[in-house]
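Predict structure. Chain length: 149.
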Amino acid sequence: MTEISPTVFYLCLAVALIGAELLILQLSVFWFLFFGVGALITAVISWFVPLTWLMSTSIFLVSSVVIALLLYPILRRWQAKPGPIAGNDAIGQRVVVLQTISRDKNGRVQWSGSKWNAELADGESEIAAGEQAVIIKLEGIRLFVGRGR
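Prediction complete.
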């Protein structure tokens, strides 16, 4: 039976841990990332310098802890920054009115490749089918539209 080298083992471990952090955890936990980078550092060092399992494991643990101590505060600050509010990118975009929208009756619009229910925004007048409108406000899945200014 062939024994696996520390280089191959830690390279596979690095791919698995970094892949799990990116694909499954989506940079939410970071610990898989820290240990994955530690494993990658160990694989690179053991590629150039023949290491015993004890030495490579020591390098893995020390490098993982150092990476965690250096990157954790930076990544937490990055993660704590407020992101854009969902739907804000919709405000101000033009839509095509498919069904007339009035005070008494909601209509339908075409936006972003889909058909949406739409209501008139406060202070807006009726918009006939075929006209263009502008998204004024978004509440959940309801679009509030107007003529735009």
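Summary: Helices lie at 6-25, 31-48, 53-80.
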